[in-house]
Amino acid sequence: MATLKEPETIEDQPRKRIRTFPKPKSTKSTQKSSNEARLFAPFRALGLITNHIPFYLQTRSQKGATEGPRIHILTCLGRSWALWEGGKMGLLFVGPEAEDRISCLIMEGDAVWAASGTHVIKYLRGQEVARATNPIGTFISSIVMFGSQLLALTEDGGRLLIWDVSDEPSLSCTIQFDIGFTAVMVLHPATYLNKVLVASSEGDLQLWNIRTQMCIHKYSSSKLLIASAAAKTPSSPITALVQSPAIDVVGIGFTSGEISVYDVRADERLMRMYMEGGGIKAMSFRNDGHQVLASGSLLGHLALWDLNSGGRLLHIVRGAHDGAISAVEWVPGQPLLITSGGDNSVKQWLFDSPTAAPRLLKFRSGHHAPPHLIRYYGEDGKQLLTASADRSLRYTSVVRDSRSFEMSQGSLVRKAATLSKSLASLKFPPITSIAYSEMRSKDWDDVLTAHADEPFVRSWTVLNKRLGKHTWNYAEGSKRKAPSGSVKCVCVSACGNFGIAGSSTGEIYMWNMQSGIKRKTFKVGQGPQAALDRLDGAKPKSSGRCITGVTTDALNRLVIATTLDGTINFFDFHTTKLDHTMVLPAFTNSIALNRNSGLLAVVCDDMTIRVIDIETKRTVRELSCGSKGRILDIAFSPDSRWIVSSSLDSIIRTFDIPTGRLIDAFRTSSAATSIAFSPTSDFLATAHVDSVGVFLWANRAQFAEVTFRTVTEEDVAEASMPVMQGDVEDDVLEALTALTTEDNPVDVFSTPPQLDGDLVTLTLLPRSRWQTLLNLEVIQQRNKPKEPPKKPEQAPFFLPSLPGVEHRFAIEGGKGEKTERKTQLDKAMAKSRSIFQKKLAELEKKGTCNDDLFNYIKGLSPAAIDIELRSLVTLDHLRQFLHALKRRLQSHQDFEAVQTLQNVFLRMHGDMLIENEELQSELEELLGVQKKESERVLELLASSLGTLGFVRDTT
């Protein structure tokens, strides 16, 4: 009999330091390291649905609802969890990351309980509200909610911990199992008070009373399994334990593939089934009146058993998941079955009749193997094309996960059922190269792919979400004795009309994307002697002319191809003639071309990126990526100013091309196999060797002013990986909150009013302002109404009316008073001076700089300036304004404004200026200054135009 030990009497020493509660909200957000990534900040992860941890299904019935209960699916994402709405499989929100990986998830109302490491954490609306810690220090493998008590099994299977969670979690007792009984799961049988069933990896089953902490009954593996199976596999572990709709009856699944429907009260096996093709991983009883048992195997098969016929096999869905099925659950009261697996997918199966085969109703899935090739599709930066070792090509949306899908490869499900093969075995080999052009995507296929060790090039159409019309075999036209090879790289021309592929035998073929007809062939030939000599003792000469990269320029003038022996070959696009060959000092692996700038980046074996100008065919930059890891992938920024590279040393480096400096470098937890820069420059996407997701990093230069400096290999920052967060206000943009706070304050440069006293400075106002002032009379004449205003209808003879659009009646009383007031107002206005005239007087009186006057003039509208100039009626006003124009010309400021004001002023008051001799001296001085400044401006313009013409002629 097992013994009981209270928590205070446990003598085992903790193997881990016990964390105190409460803990910080997020360890990543609170622990800011000084060497955090300066240019890229973690943003979010894409394509994560679930992992091998079973999901938890919760149904909620609402009063008055006509569409049935609402379904919530809780899935595990590693160290965080996601809650999905089962109706449309939409993501509700994602929980924060825990310190350790989550091993079990359950729901209690609105609360989520997660077992992570030595803790059981309670979340409410995505926020941690409580935590229970294992005092022994061992990890927790599974948890079960039992009323107000929480039951948890330790990872070693030796203890069952019981917490009272009615208020704050407090450990009430611990049950320790006997040696030889390793507990793996706990089940509460329906209607059993204070009793639970505990299954072991040895194939035994025990019934425990958790209130008295006593083992009531033991079920031996010899009774649970049939005698023959028990003799052959005496210790077949129990891997599934579920409650049936019948009281006292449970379903037990074993790794041997056997299923037992067992009566725990009578200690008797009711029926036995055997599922071929892997052990039982999950089971579930249908509960809508039909006696059906669903089971999932380790190989991904889904089986349905008719319990009314003694466990007869109804249907089996082979390859329901690409991997082990982790959980199987029937929706209560509905013919709907939900399954999940380690292939990163959750599927819903609908049964149209009790005996009909299930059909896939809806699903949400992602890659079930880490993607090794990602590329942005389109110019808006909202979608990605991702290829993975799971032999699939997926379209991944950056903005909304529900828009992501897998590109169809044909009727593979039907073929797999006909040939009795797995679905994965019928898919194309893994993709090694992707190219696309969105220019003609609405007319024909727009994506090309090359596959591992295959001579085929396949076209795809993103618009129709499927495989395209054409599959080209480059070896069809070759001679029989020619060595067989495979396609290594593909390219689609910028116009979208031609697809190009380079092979391992050194041949390059071009096809028409619309018709599929082969158009041209390019051959690299034997190559320079320098390249051939380098192959001696390094690589076989037969593979030295392998094409490692092929691309075209933006205008379809050149076809550029690199070979493994380190050469860059430039072909004429139309004549297929080899125009030029460059020999690099190292072997080449891949290339990337920015068509807007004409810069070609070549990845070489010596851990160096060489940037080639395709116009001059010269090496303009050599960027070293350290000496510890091979370069895996590179990407240009859209403005071709940066090159981002990833290498085997798990460092992502960013180089500034104009200066050739390393401006940013950060290390991730695992190597990034592929990277892609968004066409809108806002995100950098990465794919890593140990994750099925795609990770986005925000470009901080898009959101704040970032000062770049040279980064050395010793300054590499450790960056935390992006997480799949759901609460935008709290955690999604948490990495972007400190974009400006950690940067140095920006020294804002303000333009001075004049750079140099010898330079001619113009106003900052638009040219239309001065053009309108010059032609104001013409504009007013053109805008005059064509017809005079019509007289309003007459009022009755005894009510005189006032002129105007609206009917108003004149009142005899007070007419004389209004006339008197208007006359007084006119007299007051005539005696007052405008602001313009006051500033003119102050300028003459003080003799200071006239900036104040001209700043006021530049703030007026053309009509207001015209009125102010017409108000200058006295000789003093005219002399003051002539003096202001002369002073402004001598200051070399507002040249075009002075010319405009002078033109309008002379046209208005020219007659008065000529008639009065006292203004002649002012006019002569203004004329001299005007000639001097005009000649000076014309001389500067002629010099600048001559210099510009010389530069144009020489280039």
UniProtKB/TrEMBL annotation:
Residues 754-952 form the WDR36/Utp21 C-terminal domain. Keywords: WD repeat. Residues 16-26 have a biased composition (Basic residues). One of its GO terms (cellular component) is small-subunit processome. This is Small-subunit processome Utp21 domain-containing protein. Residues 73-352 form the WDR36/Utp21 N-terminal domain. It comes from the Eukaryota. Pfam families: Beta-prop_WDR36-Utp21_1st (PF25171), Beta-prop_WDR36-Utp21_2nd (PF25168), Utp21 (PF04192). SMART domains: WD40.
